[in-house]
């Protein structure tokens, strides 16, 4: 971490300065000048020894003074070299000690006495040459040794007086422990300096990350990855643990050091997948689904009302439920809400505090039995993943807190919620829901959007998905329980599932190869889901399936075509009415007509009906559900429909996306109109 160009330039400047002579001798002198200072100092020491001898040759006090001066000068040199590298410090101290010792001896005994002249010639020349060699090495390599080499850079980036410790060099990775000056800087200052360090080293900001010491506010280590090893995508290598439990982590990509990017789903529980258009978010989703659909105890529900499952069509046959329109997606949300208590009750009755792989097997263990005597033999309950793709549309239709209850309550029910969207801002996803999604995969984003998915400490450590945007498809940061925290700020890249033809081939292989591995949905979850979603769940496979072949479609008669034309003009809320039924004759009603309730009275009656249905219903209410009460309210279906729309606008009901069907908000459903 030093300025090689600066050192080389200084060296060249010294060579090219101060000489106007010509000829070979002048050129040699010009080249030799930078190396003359050690020899000049050596000569000066010799002259100083001879001169001192003429003054202090017969003075014992001079001997004491010179000895003390030699020791003091050596100690001062050692102390002054504290801020430099250990090599320079030791070299300087030895040079001063040797020179001052010879000077003292020469002053007291004479420079030509005994071995002193030989020591002067050999020792002086050796020390001078050692400094010349050091200068040649430093000038040629641009190296100033150890922490001294980094002093200028650290001062430039605002980390002056920072100590760098033992550097560990690995293939394409340099780890540099640091220690900041006490009371002057903190790890936060290091995080803020990352862009400047990257600029000084001429590497992208994502190549530098900081790992803080959890036991210290001023210690940690820099991790520098100078070469981006993720530029070339890695083709999906196949399932990581085919036929195994979902408890085995999912392998979905590689880190920049070549190690596997794995997602421990049972530790992550719920996950947010976020990234802008073109960032590779769909590729990452496919990698996760490829893994899920090869496991023996996993069931997948997918809701994609925004794009009707466009990116997942080849995988839909392997999914238990694919909700590809708004009514089905809304029904899936209601179904997930309904299955949580049912699954929790089953797990509780079988002695499980939370879902574990044994819960997916037949219950032959007496310790996990709902029977009083011995094993109950109940069928198992597979793990359930509810995947909400392009969830922004669902949130707009159902409300930004629609997933909050699911995320908060599903932890122990063997249900994971995956919310995939481009931007998880507070305008789209409630703060409570986002806080309940502990794991995140953040692909490239714009500006400060990464803060919606990644914790602040991960961003401080150097994670910067905004540096990629949609220019690095598949680049991702993964934050999850079960993943080493030191890897949170490490860039990774999800596997590439190949061009469209290869992707369809791989997806088809998964659908066929693991058809016998994937479990069927358990009866407990199925019953709760059907109660909440009705035919949208019961007919889920037909709704998501491919259309029948043209040869199998019967030809329509003219009467059938006419009936279909009329059906298209019918209000969806009246679709179940029989238009051919005869109207009752006026004479049929022999009772005296009752007074029609006023508008306020009718609204009060409607509120009562809503409260009643809220207490016993499946979580949604339709205009048709109030048909039996129209006479009591004294209004027709049209009036009730308008009133329910008004209640939805006031926030007392929430639209589901299905005509005439609303989701109840229990706290507000019975409020006065």
TrEMBL record:
Residues 1-22 are annotated as: Disordered. The keyword Electron transport does not apply. Signal peptide: none annotated. InterPro entries: FtsK/SpoIIIE/SftA, FtsK_dom, P-loop_NTPase. Keywords: ATP-binding, Nucleotide-binding. It comes from the Bacteria. SUPFAM superfamilies: P-loop containing nucleoside triphosphate hydrolases. Residues 258-452 form the FtsK domain. ATP binds at residues 275-282. This is Plasmid transfer protein TraB. It comes from Streptomyces gibsoniae.
């Amino acid at each position: 971490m030093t300025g090689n160009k600066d050192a080389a330039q200084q060296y060249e400047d010294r060579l090219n300065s101060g000489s106007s002579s010509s000829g070979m001798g002048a050129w040699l002198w010009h080249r030799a000048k930078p190396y003359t200072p050690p020899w000049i100092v050596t000569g000066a020491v010799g002259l100083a020894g001879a001169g001192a001898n003429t003054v202090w040759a017969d003075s014992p006090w001079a001997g004491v003074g010179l000895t003390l001066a030699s020791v003091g000068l050596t100690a001062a040199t050692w102390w002054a070299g504290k801020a430099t590298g250990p090599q320079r410090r030791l070299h300087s101290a030895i040079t001063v000690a040797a020179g001052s010792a010879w000077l003292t001896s020469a002053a007291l005994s004479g420079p030509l006495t005994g071995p002193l002249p030989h020591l002067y010639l050999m020792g002086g020349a050796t020390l001078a040459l050692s400094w010349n060699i050091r200068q040649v090495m430093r000038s040629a390599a641009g190296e100033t040794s150890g922490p001294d080499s980094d002093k200028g850079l650290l001062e430039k980036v605002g980390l002056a007086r920072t100590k760098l410790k033992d550097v560990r060099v690995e293939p394409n990775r340099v780890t540099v422990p640091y220690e900041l000056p006490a009371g002057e800087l903190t790890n936060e200052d290091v995080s803020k300096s990352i862009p400047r360090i990257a600029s000084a080293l001429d590497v992208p900001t994502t190549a530098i990350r900081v790992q803080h010491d959890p036991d210290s506010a001023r210690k940690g280590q820099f991790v520098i990855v100078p070469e981006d090893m993720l530029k070339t995508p890695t083709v999906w290598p196949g399932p990581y643990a085919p036929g195994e439990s979902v408890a085995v982590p999912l392998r979905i990509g590689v880190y920049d050091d070549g190690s596997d990017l794995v997602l421990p789903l049972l530790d992550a529980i719920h996950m947010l997948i976020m990234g802008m258009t073109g960032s590779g978010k769909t590729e990452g989703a496919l990698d996760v689904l490829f893994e899920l659909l090869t496991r023996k105890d996993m069931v997948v529900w997918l809701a994609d009302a925004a794009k009707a499952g466009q990116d997942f069509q080849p995988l839909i046959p392997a999914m238990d439920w694919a909700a590809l329109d708004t009514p089905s997606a809304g029904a899936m949300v209601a179904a997930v809400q309904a299955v949580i208590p049912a699954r929790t009750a089953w797990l509780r009755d079988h002695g499980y505090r939370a879902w574990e792989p044994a819960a997916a097997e037949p219950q032959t263990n007496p310790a996990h039995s709902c029977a009083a005597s011995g094993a109950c033999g109940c069928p198992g309950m597979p793990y359930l993943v509810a995947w909400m793709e392009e969830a922004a549309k669902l949130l707009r239709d159902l409300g930004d807190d629609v997933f909050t209850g699911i995320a908060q309550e599903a932890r122990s029910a063997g249900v994971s919620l995956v919310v995939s969207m481009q931007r998880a801002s507070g305008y789209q996803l409630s703060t409570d829901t986002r806080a309940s999604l502990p794991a995140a995969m953040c692909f490239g984003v714009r500006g400060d959007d990464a803060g919606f998915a990644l914790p602040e400490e991960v961003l401080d450590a150097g994670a910067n998905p905004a540096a990629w945007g949609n220019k690095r498809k598949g680049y991702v940061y993964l934050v999850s329980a079960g993943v080493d925290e030191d890897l949170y700020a490490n860039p990774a890249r999800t596997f590439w599932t190949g061009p469209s033809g290869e992707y369809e081939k791989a997806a088809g292989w998964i659908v066929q190869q693991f058809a016998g591995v994937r479990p069927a949905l358990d009866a407990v979850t199925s019953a709760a889901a059907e109660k909440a979603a009705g035919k949208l769940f019961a007919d889920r496979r037909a709704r998501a399936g491919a259309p029948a072949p043209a040869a199998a479609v019967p030809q329509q008669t003219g009467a059938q075509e006419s009936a279909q034309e009329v059906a298209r003009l019918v209000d969806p809320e009246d679709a179940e009415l029989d238009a051919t039924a005869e109207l009752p004759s006026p004479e049929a009603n022999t009772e005296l007509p009752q007074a029609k309730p006023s508008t306020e009275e009718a609204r009060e009656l409607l509120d009562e009906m809503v409260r009643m249905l809220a207490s016993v219903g499946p979580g949604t209410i339709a205009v048709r559900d109030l048909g039996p009460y129209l006479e009591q309210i004294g209004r027709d279906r049209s009036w009730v429909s308008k009133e329910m729309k008004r209640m939805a606008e006031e926030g007392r009901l929430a639209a589901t996306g299905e005509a005439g069907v609303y989701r109840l908000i229990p706290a507000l459903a019975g409020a006065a109109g």
